[in-house]
Write a structure and sequence with these properties.
This protein is α/β, with parallel strands linked by helices and 288 residues long. The C terminus is likely disordered. The chain folds into 2 domains: 172 residues, Rossmann fold (3-Layer(aba) Sandwich); 81 residues, UDP-galactose 4-epimerase, domain 1, CATH 3.90.25.10. The chain is globular.
């Protein structure tokens, strides 16, 4: 499929991932949250039926994991019900749908999860995203559900920027060392989305390669991260201990350390970024 030749609509285009998707689908028609509320069924149907895109990419989501615990109705409306509206509208006109989901649909009892593993979320965010996956599957067969994890990118708040700010403002930064996953650069994910369109419909696990804990991830960003347990750092939403997504369907993306180096080179002094990554290679016990 030649992406530039098909009429594409991007929803959630103002977010971190949505902005990178716009760069990779430059001819696409784009709507930010301010321009289209995906929880408004009539508005979603009106836009999709009027524009009649051949491909719809939904990057809109409520991603505040702890916030979802307090705003359950909002979480299920945005992450669960709204994707069903989009999928139903796509089904009516025969367009393809790309939708992004999360590693948090899993409970973390296994060390790794493939696309065929059965989801069992342990927090509201994961449950709402799973409901969205199921709503899409019921509404249209012409879908690509891309599960991803630990996103960072140039166009939104993310863990890397949080660590840089906390590291500069505090002597030490406590980060949990008993939750494991795969960091993913939105720039790489957006590029990979183009490739997936040449594959069959279904669920895909797409992340940068390399497994680490949040502490190991933080140690690649700042020099003053210190490890702690999840019990020592209580959050409102329970997190899976392991949420490692295994990609069995496409070629792997580059290692997260290489992606992080690219990101840091764009956001701060390249020499500092290179030094930080070098320390991480030497000192962190990263599982591959």
């Amino acid at each position: 499929m030649v992406v530039g030749t098909i009429k594409t609509l991007i929803l959630g285009a103002g977010g971190m991932l949505g902005t990178d998707l716009r760069a990779n689908f430059p001819q696409a028609i784009s709507f930010t949250h301010a321009e289209l509320d995906i929880t408004d069924k009539n508005a979603v149907f009106s836009i999709i039926e009027r524009l009649r895109p051949e491909l719809v990419i939904n990057a809109a989501a409520y991603t505040k994991v702890d916030g979802c615990e307090e705003n359950i109705e909002l979480a299920f409306s945005v992450n669960g019900t709204a994707p069903g509206y989009i999928a139903e509208a796509c089904g009516r006109i025969g367009s393809k749908l790309v939708h992004f989901s999360t590693d948090y649909v899993f409970d973390g009892k296994k060390k790794e999860y493939t696309e065929s593993d059965k989801p069992d979320p342990i927090n509201v965010y994961g449950a709402s995203k799973l409901e969205g996956e199921q709503a899409i599957a019921r509404a249209t067969e012409r879908h690509y559900i891309i599960r991803t994890s630990w996103l960072f990118g140039l166009h939104g708040a993310n863990f890397v920027d949080t660590m840089l700010k906390l590291g500069a403002a505090n002597p030490v930064v406590r980060v949990v060392n008993d939750q494991f996953g795969k960091p993913t650069y939105t720039k790489d994910l957006a590029q990979k989305t183009q490739e997936i369109l040449n594959h069959g419909y279904g669920i895909y696990h797409i992340t940068n390669e390399g497994i680490c804990s949040w502490y190991e991830f933080a140690s690649a960003i700042i020099p003053n991260a210190v490890p702690c347990t999840s019990e020592e750092f209580i959050r409102m939403a329970k997190r899976p201990k392991y949420s490692v997504l295994v990609n069995t369907k496409t070629k792997p993306m580059r290692h997260w350390k290489d992606a992080l180096r690219d990101y840091l080179n764009k956001t701060r002094n390249p020499a500092t970024a290179t030094l930080s990554i070098a320390k991480a290679h030497a000192g962190a016990d990263i599982r591959h």
